[in-house]
Amino acid sequence: MNSFSKWLGAGLGFTLGGPIGAAIGFAIGSFVDGFTLDEFKQEQLDYDKNRKPKGSFRRANTQSGDFEMSLLVLASIVIKSDGKIDQRELDFVRSQFLNMYGKQRANNAFKLFKGIVKKQISARQVCIQIREHMSHSARLQLLHFLFGIAKADEFVTKNEVEEIRKIAGYLYINQNDYESIKAMFYNESDNSYKILEITKSATNDEVKSAYRKMVKKYHPDKVQDLGEEHIKGAKEKFQSIQTAYENIKSERGM
Length: 254
Prior knowledge:
Elements: H1 2-9, H2 18-31, H3 37-50, H4 64-79, H5 87-101, H6 103-116, H7 123-133, H8 136-151, H9 158-170, H10 175-183, H11 191-195, H12 204-218, H13 231-252
Helix pairs in contact: 2-3, 2-6, 4-6, 4-7, 4-8, 4-9, 5-6, 5-8, 8-9, 8-10, 12-13
Organism: Polaribacter dokdonensis DSW-5
Protein name: DnaJ like chaperone protein
Domain J: 191-253
């Protein structure tokens, strides 16, 4: 338990309390001998006592571990939204964590994930906790990851899309941002325009303006405070913006 505890405690802040902390506690209690959920709840209570007063600015306290735990909990919600747990989706989660965190950290995370996925979790309550502490750019990165999970089995169900849409709303991600990220995972004729949050009727100047706006919004530097391990995912999202712009330029002969 010592090495696991050391990993779990490293870089964690706001996710040690609230509904995310409860999910983590449930997961640990399901596979660690001699560990009781009451012990973990006490850790949450101790943490909550030391938190800043409600209403104070805490988003800067988000750590890499907070993002990691938030991903695990939200991923479990999306995977179960179609009424089954697909092995390809589980494999995608594991591969993403391997790419981001390396073998040992990914093994710990996936071990925890297999416990979290067994618990019924309120997406709304989890998202309220996340949005109180996490920047808008980091929340966009979470949404991008969730669509990747849904697409992992090569078929995105209506239930999965609806669950991600609800999560986006709970995270205060607006419809344009939601549709932009969703379009990064679909091959449709107007996807490039959706990614840039414009329509085909946009003028060339409006296309250029939209591109500059999206570059600013999705630049990988926006999530650099979360750690180098999350920059790769941000770069993938950023590349989708670049590709969409190049496609429109080629189509219009700009």
